Amino acid sequence: MGALNFAGRALKNLFSAPATIKYPFEPRVYPEGTRGHVENDMDQCILCGLCQMRCPTKAITVDKGSQTWSIRPFSCIQCRCCVDNCPKKSLSMGLKYQEPGSVKVTKTFELSDKQKELLAAQQKAAAERAAAAKAAAAAKAAGGNAAAKPEAK
Amino acid sequence: MSNRSVVPFGPQHPVLPEPIHLDLVLEDEVVVDAIPSIGFVHRGLEKLVEVKDFNEMAYVAERICGICSYGHGFGYCDAVEHIMNIEIPPRAQYLRTILFEMSRLHSHMLWFGLLADGFGFESLFMDAWRIREKLLDMLEEATGGRVIFSINKIGGMRRDIPKEMLKSFRQRLEDLTEDLKVTVRTLLEDPAVKSRLSGVGVLTADEVETLGAAGPFLRGSGIRRDSRKLGYLAYDDIDFDIITHNDGDTYARTYVRAMEILQSVDIIKQAIEKTPAGEVDVPVKGFPNGEYMTRIEQPRGEACYYVKANGKKFLERMRVRTPTFANIPALTASLRGSELADIPILILAIDPCISCTER
Fold first, then answer.
1. Which of B186, B251, B314 to mutate to test the interface with A (most CBs of A within 10 A)?
2. What are the tens digits of pLDDT across the range A3-55?
3. Would residue B19 count as lying in a domain?
4. Complete edge-to-edge strand list for the sheet that includes strand A107-110
5. pTM for the complete prediction?
6. How many CB pairs under 8 A join A and B?
7. What are the sequence ranges of the domains in chain A?
8. Does residue B166 contact residue B91 with C-beta atoms inside 8 Å?
9. In this complex, is the C-beta atom of B148 within 8 Å of any C-beta atom belonging to chain A?
């Protein structure tokens, strides 16, 4: 019985189209949400370094000095931790699987000019704020000292 | 007295997907003893608990094995959740059940193909893997990965499976059922297959129990034991029966696994029907402190996850007892007295997973 059933299927298989897709000629359609590879939108990234901290395999390096974000794709395990922890949503999972290769490469991306300017402006503002706060604290301390001195005498 | 000779079997052998070595002591064509040795793919994953954060360890646990990866990830998370007294929302329980059964289904289909290939039934092998491919597509849609799912985390699921997707899974499984039934029936009713599997490597219920076998190997000898009946996840609410067979031979083991394929489809359909709405994860605070052992039913049998924590970021110990490890003594017992030509079938019938065994 079983063999007869299967003979029907085997015959059908002989004359029907293959179950596989003819890959290079027909594109592979990835389902939405496939964890293929990590992408970073350098127009959004603020180099906060959270992705580097949360990466289980330490595949991501954030260099604030040279303003670059780099990933070692051969160490990446596509766990999606960095994407889930990105505060600016600049990281995302690309659908295409990580390409194979014979050399362990490091992919480095530089911050976009727009983002560089933004960060510089933010740093400047922060420095000004810090300076202002310091000046205020110094003035307060001086005032406090002036008030305290007569008491000490 | 006839001559005795020792034939090495493995670690590289056409029927073995993974390396295990057996020294077969033969008297003419009959095996009188089999001495197994393992250790070819040991990676020391358990030791990694000392250097990986307990949250990150879930990714390591999943990578113990590529076929039972879902169960390993879940088993580890479940143990840590018990230590931390985390109650998982009901929706997450059901989604975990659905995915667990899907992974059982794809694991059994993989075994099905390998067994068919083992005795030279190439078209059945291709047919089983054609069906498995559709299951892998479903798993990729739901979790984002084909082999490593990374969907379990401590405290629930990392992503929700939308209602429409569950509905489409139900429909696609419905469509697959006819296909599956023909494939399964072919294996179980084909006279050539039957004559090859029946009466080979017979072990009685007493023997398998004494030797500590697990999973379909145990149930193939008539013992009704299935960890899913312990009531973890949503298995308590799902109506299913433990599949057993009384013959204790290779055909019986094949029968149990083949029937579990159809049963898994049924369990998934029931679980999809009953999945409640709601959250899929709960926030986790603090570090685990204490110890726990989880028992779950992996596709190959019962697996145990022991976790010991001491209130720090890193765990003290994680230990996994995998079903194939438990099955090796019974496997060597079943090899004794069988013909040399039956060895590949006997080994494939326990669905060996050496990566799990060695970690």
1. B186
2. 567 778 888 888 888 888 888 898 888 888 888 888 888 888 888 888 888 88
3. no
4. A60-63, A68-71, A107-110
5. 0.85
6. 60
7. 31-128
8. no
9. yes
